[in-house]
Amino acid sequence: MPIKIADSLPAKTILEKENIFVMTEYRAMHQDIRPLKLLILNLMPTKIVTETQLLRKLSNTPLQIEVDLLRTISHEAKNVDQQHLESFYTSFEQVENEHYDGMIITGAPVENLEFEQVDYWEELCKIMEWTKTNVHCTFHICWGAQAGLYYHYGIQKYQLPKKLSGVYAHRMLKPQSPIFRGFNDVFYVPHSRYTTVSEEDIKKVPELELLAVSDEAGVFAVKTEDSRQFFITGHPEYDSDTLALEYERDVKKGLDIQVPEHYFPNDDPTQKPVVNWRSPAQLLYTNWLNYYVYQTTPYDISKVGE
Question: Which of 37, 53, 208, 217 could cross-link to 168 by cystine, CB 3.0-4.6 Å?
Answer without folding.
Answer: 217
